[in-house]
Amino acid sequence: MSGVRSALEEWSATDPELLDTERLADDLVELERVSGLLEAVRLQWLEVFARKQGHHDQGYPSPTAFLTARCGMRAGRAHTAVTRAHSLSETPIVMQAWVGERISSDQANELFRVASLAAEESLRPKRPWWTR
C-alpha cells in the first residue's frame, strides 16, 4: 500500500499550475484510471470482508455500519458500496473488464447497478399467473 500512497503524494505535491496542458491531460487520464482501479480493488476487498463477516469481528452489525463509522462514509454511499460489492460474485465478467480497463468506472458502476436491481427483482415474490 505504501507504493500507492507514494504515487498519490507525488501527484499531490505537484502544482498543476506549472504543468502544460498536454501533461495535465495525460495526468487526468491516468488519475481516472488509478481512481477506477482503486475503487475496483476496494470493492473486491469489501466483498471478502463482508463475506467473512469482518464487520462482526470489528463490533459492527453490518458492513454498511462499519464503513459509516470507520471510514466516515455517508450511510447512502456505504450502502451503495456494499450493494456493489455483493454484486461482484454475480458479475465477474464486469469486474474483469473494469480491472482490465476495457470499460470505465462509470460503465462498470452502471452494470453493477442494473445487476443489483435485477437481483432484487428476482427476490420479489411472484403472483401466480392466474391472479394477474
- Structural class, by secondary structure, is mainly alpha
Question: What percent of residues are in strands?
Answer: under 5%
Quote the average pLDDT. Answer: 88
Number of helices: 7
Low-pLDDT residue spans: none
The shape, in one word, is globular
List how many beta strands DSSP finds: 0
Measured between the Cα atoms of the first and last residue, the distance is 55 Å
Largest sheet: none
**In which range does the helix fraction lie?**
over 70%
CA-based gyration radius? 19 Å
SSE succession: HHHHHHH
Describe the protein's architecture and organization.
- With 132 residues, the protein is mainly α.
- It is 73% helix and 0% strand.
- It is built from 7 helices and no strands.
- The chain has helices at 2-13, 21-51, 54-57, 63-71, 75-87, 92-99, 105-123.
- α2 (21-51) crosses α5 (75-87).
- The longest helix has 31 residues, at 21-51.
- The chain is globular, with a radius of gyration of 19 Å.
